[in-house]
Amino acid sequence: MKRRSALLAMILLPVLVCCQGKKDQPGTAATQGPEARSASAHGPKVRMKTSLGEIVVELNAEKAPITVENFLGYVKTKHYDGTVFHRVINGFMIQGGGFAPEGGKLVEKPSGKGIVNEGQNGLKNDRGTIAMARTADPNSATAQFFINVGDNAGLNFPSGGGYAVFGKVIAGMDVVDKIKAVVTGQKQLTMRNPATGEQLTMPSGDVPVQNVVIQSVTVE
């Protein structure tokens, strides 16, 4: 099924939801424009060890200082260790950092308050960039992130306020491509109501059949 990169938002879960229809052809590492190449500006680097291999991301603290500080805060508290990529759409993006296996289910981990959206920072949602997931509220991003596996112009400002890019994969894009190609289906996700903290279980599509686990994320 072809998908386009226009997004809808779910109120309880900061996920990216695609509409059906025509989607721009994803770019390749060799054809990215200068905006994508500048998404990392010799900033902090993090190493993400996953069950399918390692990914190294260089963060752009110059263009996205609030987002980078927020992300590194979750790294330092080991929030991401043991979480999974819970939404994978080949040709679009892979999303993770929010859910962990628990008793045979995927349960959302508690997270902090939403941060100011830096979607206007000029960085584009091109292949290989990392950005923050959020709800319809532009300033609702907490811990969940996604890595673009195609050039997703529909996520850039001003569309919906933009999705804030804050870095770029500099090693391990082959691992990202392995993840984007895994078999997916529908699973039950247990989410937390951001207002009350209560848990709500509901079905979600595009979830890997076999968990792709983020074993650890560390600063280089």
Report on this model:
With 220 residues, this protein is mainly beta. The chain has a single domain (3-19, 38-219), classed as Cyclophilin, CATH 2.40.100.10. It is built from three helices and 14 strands. The chain has helices at 34-37, 65-76, 173-180; strands at residues 3-8, 17-20, 45-50, 53-59, 83-89, 93-96, 99-102, 105-108, 129-132, 145-148, 165-171, 184-192, 199-208, 213-219. The chain has an eight-stranded antiparallel barrel. A four-stranded mixed sheet has the order 7-8-12-13, with no helix packed on it. A two-stranded antiparallel ribbon has the order 1-2. A hairpin with an 8-residue loop joins strand 1 and strand 2 (17-20).
Summarize, please.
With 220 residues, this protein is mostly beta strands. It is built from three helices and 14 strands.
Mean pLDDT across all amino acids: 85
Please, how many helices?
Answer: 3
Our Rg estimate from Cα atoms comes to: 16 Å
Provide the CATH superfamily: Cyclophilin-like
Unreliable parts: 1-13, 15-37
Q: Kindly, what is the distance between the CA atoms of the first and last residues, rounded to a whole number of angstroms?
A: 38 Å
Q: Could you estimate the helical fraction of the residues in percent?
A: 10-25%
Structural class: mainly beta
Along the chain, the helix and strand elements come as EEHEEHEEEEEEEHEEE
Strand content: 35-45%
In the residues, how many domains can be counted? 1
CATH fold description: Cyclophilin
